């Protein structure tokens, strides 16, 4: 393969999980990549000490969306400055391939790839609706990959192998896992607490990821209820927790949704109501149209919802999930990129 590969993007766990899949695959093939992320968000925590990288670089990049005019101008100014920084990095390290996994962290390296002669840009869009940056830059990309795009050469999501390794077909609901995405979700936490007694009375075990900010409160509420739930704020071993469960009640961020599918774990998705273009709803609708999940809007959550879930046929959904997802997406994605750049 010609030149060095840069993987860029981040901000939240969903984008970073896909970046990690690319990083691991290029390392496996003996061509470790450079990661370019932001000093804001979670990028540094994920990759600062990743041995599988040639180098990790964190730039002073901030998001532009949901800011007032002054905030937008300041963010755009920072991005412009960092584009120049990236062009220097590309020159020094002979970068000829940039893979963007989206999020504001990807802006400088993505724009630099467009300005850099001979450099090819690849975009991996995780969600059903394109993010702003990908929308703006996709016309300059050699390939845009997405599970939701008809013309995408690879539609399977790059889920890490551990989710497939721990997959099993579910027979009945004995354990439920509550998941709020990388930051946790207060609405899901509250719903879990409101139905915890009912689940406990039915001898259903509870696993619950709360997010950092709500951990203490949720843990104390379970204690007050006298329920022995497995409560944690965030874990690096989420695939193990998923595999212990027979049903998930979860946000429908792209990474979680496909990980649950890879694990053959049926789910009720509660889309984040403020996600851009309502993309979390459409992420899940794709599965619902195939009768492979349930969706409930946050505002419609009631105790009747869980009653319906408890009588559903988890076995047929779980079997349907096993048949619907492949485990070799990351290999296929990297094969195409390498073939194009010989
Ligand atoms: C509020 C918002 O805009 N969220 C977006 C954000 O979601 P966010 O990053 O919250 O959600 P995702 O589901 O995509 O990713 C979360 C990731 O964190 C991991 N995890 C979670 C909990 C834990 O304890 N341990 C752990 O490792 C999950 O396994 C998953 O890989 O980026 C996603 C991908 O672009 C989008 O679909 C979401 O809409």
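^ structure tokens above, recovered residues below v
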């Amino acid at each position: 393969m010609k030149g060095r590969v840069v993987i860029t993007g981040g901000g939240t766990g969903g984008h970073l999980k896909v970046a990690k899949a690319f990083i691991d695959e290029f390392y496996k093939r003996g061509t470790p990549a450079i990661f370019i992320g932001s000093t804001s968000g979670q990028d540094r925590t994920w990759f600062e000490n990743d041995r599988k990288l040639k180098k990790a670089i964190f730039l002073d990049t901030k998001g532009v969306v949901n800011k007032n005019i002054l905030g937008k101008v300041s963010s755009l100014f920072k991005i412009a400055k960092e584009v120049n920084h990236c062009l220097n990095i590309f020159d020094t390290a002979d970068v000829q391939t940039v893979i963007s996994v989206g999020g504001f962290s990807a802006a400088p390296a993505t724009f630099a790839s467009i300005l850099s002669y001979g450099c090819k840009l690849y975009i991996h869009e995780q969600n059903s609706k394109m993010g702003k940056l990908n929308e703006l830059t996709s016309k300059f990309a050699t390939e845009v990959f997405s599970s939701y795009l008809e013309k995408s050469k690879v539609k399977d999501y790059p889920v890490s192998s551990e989710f497939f390794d721990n997959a099993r077909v579910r027979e009945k609901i004995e354990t439920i896992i509550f998941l709020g995405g990388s930051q946790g979700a207060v609405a899901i936490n509250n719903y879990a607490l409101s139905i915890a007694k009912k689940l406990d009375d039915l001898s259903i075990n509870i696993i619950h990821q709360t997010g950092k900010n709500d951990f203490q409160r949720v843990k104390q509420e379970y204690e007050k209820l006298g329920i022995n739930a497995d409560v944690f704020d965030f874990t690096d071993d989420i695939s193990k927790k998923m595999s212990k469960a027979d049903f998930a009640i979860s946000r429908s961020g792209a990474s979680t949704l496909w990980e649950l599918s890879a694990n053959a774990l049926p789910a009720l998705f509660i889309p984040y109501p403020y996600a851009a273009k309502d993309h979390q709803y459409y992420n899940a609708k794709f599965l619902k149209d195939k009768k492979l999940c349930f969706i409930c809007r946050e505002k419609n959550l009631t105790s009747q919802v869980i009653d319906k879930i408890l009588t559903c046929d988890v076995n047929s959904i779980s079997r349907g999930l096993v048949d619907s997802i492949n485990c070799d997406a990351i290999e296929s994605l990297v094969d195409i990129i390498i073939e194009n750049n010989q």
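The chain has a mean pLDDT of 95.
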